[in-house]
Amino acid sequence: MVEVSQSGERSVDDAVLDAARDCVLAYGVRRTTMTDVARRAGVSRMTVYRRWPDVQSLIGDLMNREWHQVLMAAADTETGGTARSRLVSRVVAVARELRDHPLLCKIRDVDPEVLLPYLLHRRGNGQDEMLQFLAAALAGGHEDHSIRPGEPELMARAVFLTTQSFVLSVRTVADDVPVARFDRELALLVDGYLRPD
User: Fold this and answer.
1) Distance (Å, rounded) from C-alpha 32 to C-alpha 5?
2) DSSP 3-state of 4
3) C-alpha Rg value of the chain to the nearest Å
4) Rounded CA gap, 19 and 10, in Å?
5) Which of 3, 88, 169, 187 has its CA 20 to 30 A from that of 98?
């Protein structure tokens, strides 16, 4: 995802997205301006506006990049075992990383309305990428017969919805239970749902 020139320098887009991340972590989404981002990135405002028409689209691309990096890091973790066991491990790893991700935590705590469209009305590119990842992993589980028969796209959506609640809502029900203990429960839920009869 990070573009690097032949000389090894990061792309302007990446520098702007890094600056946007720093601004959101410092001020929140509502208080982040294109001027702040441009200043932090060391580029002109016009450079930023040529690539993104407004803060909302910039933040959308930032979230897509950050969630992509989490997904790719989890995809590189475990290589042994059945397709089902690898998928369960990766789902839990992604949920854990996203639940504790500084950007997602800041948005959830300070500007939760930014997340509402992606929870109630439409999917973002990051969500689509996660669904594709799940569907491909489920198809792999059908090939090695470690995952019960079913439509991979539908099953991917069910796993996604379950995982999303463990990422965004677990703190509302955790009470005095350490949040990390829910990782095992998520693994049991997903594994049980996917396990062949």
Assistant:
1) 28
2) strand
3) 19
4) 13
5) 3
10 Å Cβ neighbour count for 16? 24
Q: How far apart are alpha carbons 48 and 59 in whole angstroms?
A: 12
Q: What three-state secondary structure class fits 176? A: coil
pLDDT per residue rounded down to tens, the chain (197 residues): 334 444 445 699 999 999 999 999 999 999 999 999 999 999 999 999 999 999 999 999 999 999 999 999 987 666 678 999 999 999 999 999 999 999 999 999 999 999 999 899 999 899 999 999 999 999 999 999 999 999 999 999 999 999 999 999 998 998 899 988 999 999 999 999 999 98
pTM of the model: 0.87
In this structure, what DSSP letter does residue 11 have? Answer: P
Give the 3-state DSSP-derived string for 133-167, with helices as H, strands as E and coil as C.
HHHHHHHHHHHCCCCCCCCHHHHHHHHHHHHHHHH
140: its two tokens: 């792999």
Backbone region of residue 49 per phi and psi (left: phi > 0; alpha: psi in -120 to 50; beta: other values): alpha
Amino acid at residue number 120: L
Tell me the one-letter amino acid at 190.
Answer: V
